[in-house]
Amino acid sequence: MTMNVTNRGGIVMRFATALMVIAVLGMASSAQAVGVFFEDFDGGQFSDGGDVVGNNGWVQSGFRGVTIFPRPSSKLTNAPSAPNGLTSGLAAMESPFVDPGSAFARDISGNITNDEILVTFDMGGGGQTRVTLGGSDIFGSGSNDHILVQFNNASGDVSFNGQTGGSRVPDIGPTVPGPGFQGAAFQARIQVNKLTTETSADYRLLPTDTWTNIFTETPGLALYTGITAIGFNQGNDAWVDNISIGVPEPTSMSLLVLGGLVMLMRRRRRG
Questions:
Q1: CB neighbours (10 Å) of residue 26?
Q2: Are residues 44 and 144 in the same domain?
Q3: Residues 97, 26: contact at Cβ < 8 Å?
């Protein structure tokens, strides 16, 4: 049996494409599995009324203000009704009657890609959610150096401050009054570059909406190089759900490269 050059070339081309698909998807899968952590608080280890701390790698946090002693764990509750459907199942909520709030934290050193930190989460309720990024001492010991972004759902204000060398760094960025989510359930996003210290916060009311920037600041604080952990502090019935930590771009870029290669090979075949 004979095979003409065109057919043979087509078979080789298809085989090469298949190999590239397998290789690129394998790399994309690995990048996503290693680099991104996702938490929706649903699953066998979480239960209604139970603690967040002690499950799925969450530990105590003591970051709020200048104090470093651990706060009590936030509790899990059946997600409150969100008209935009941002939450379902269980969500993390402030423990009742705890002042100045309850908290949970975890190590994120494995979720930092090329000094880039990306955190997104859904939140709502009538209170405040404070997101802290710092070293392992935000778990409740040491100098407690950190940066802190506070989303105040009651007023709609967002503030950005921190602490270094045991001293508070107030108002790293100006408090932004009422950017548009007051009293609503919404998605928040925080992006940090440890090298340049550029820090930004964004929000959107629906997953399909375009992100709206709240602030972008470059504080230039040395503490950024030591960021390896994140903490959430909740007050006054605030709830948090669907936390994503990590930069998923390697997956997206791999798929874009794959698509470009396939298109190029198809053009060559047709040519």
A1: 11
A2: yes
A3: no
Token reading at 146: 């950190």
Question: At residue 35, what is the residue type?
Answer: G
CATH number of the domain encompassing residue 209? 2.60.120.200
Domain hosting residue 132, numbered range: 37-247
| Tens of pLDDT, residues 46-81 | 998 899 999 999 998 765 544 556 778 888 888 666
The answer to whether residues 114 and 229 touch, using CB atoms and an 8 Å cutoff, is: no
User: Could you tell me the pTM of the whole model?
Assistant: 0.77
**258, containing H or E segment:** helix 249-270
b/e map 65-100, b = 16+ CB within 10 Å: eeebebbebbbbbebeebebebbeebbbbbbeebee
Rounded distance between C-alpha atoms, residue 254 and residue 221, angstroms: 34
Query: Do 19 and 95 share a domain, yes or no?
Result: no
